[in-house]
Amino acid sequence: MPATEEGFASVEDLIRHRYSFDKASQHLGIEVVSAEAGRVTMAMDVQDSMLNGHGILHGGYLFTLGDTVFAFVCESLGHPSVSRQAEITYIAPGGAGSRLIASGVERTRYGRNNIVDVTIEDQDGQHLAEVRVFGVLVPKK
């Protein structure tokens, strides 16, 4: 359902409203950068508490950021979905003090299913990871 059908002036307004209820993302410092129908960009600053024993970003935080972007991409199209399968390809390690930028786009929708691809880079454009999420539409109550 388009953002205007829900009383929001834009998709970005809808996404920012939905974000206001996402306590996990807020706790991790994930922020909405931009949103339009089918495309969402979010960012997260790497905190020292996110580093593993090697002094690099724990991969689970990259995955969490990617999964979060997936959810908001689905929301941007009015199709709230949950992931049923996801895969991540780690390309380079994230470092302390980095700002991660994750951009997602819905690639296809078929029946109650969809595929969303997310690219994660740091503030310098270093490609860190690719996430592909296979989602399923959440049934309406």
UniProtKB/TrEMBL annotation:
Residues 54-125 form the Thioesterase domain. InterPro entries: Acyl-CoA_thioesterase_PaaI, HotDog_dom_sf, PAAI_dom, Thioestr_dom. This is Thioesterase domain-containing protein. Keywords: Hydrolase.
